[in-house]
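Sequence in, structure out. Go.
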Amino acid sequence: MTHVITDECIVCGSCETECPENAISMGDEHYEIDPEKCKDNAACVEVCPVDAIVKQE
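Output:
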């Protein structure tokens, strides 16, 4: 199971620099997580100031 970034993202960039898998990049309106690269280590969740990163179900 991977994580996703919700519309609550404020485009601060904290998650992108924290991801050891380089799975996060800027999308059309906010950052997005590539599910093929995400290894579910949750490093991005810890640094998100608005809790915009959640487990995908």
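Check: The longest helix spans residues 14-18. The beta strands are 3-5, 24-26, 31-33, 53-55.
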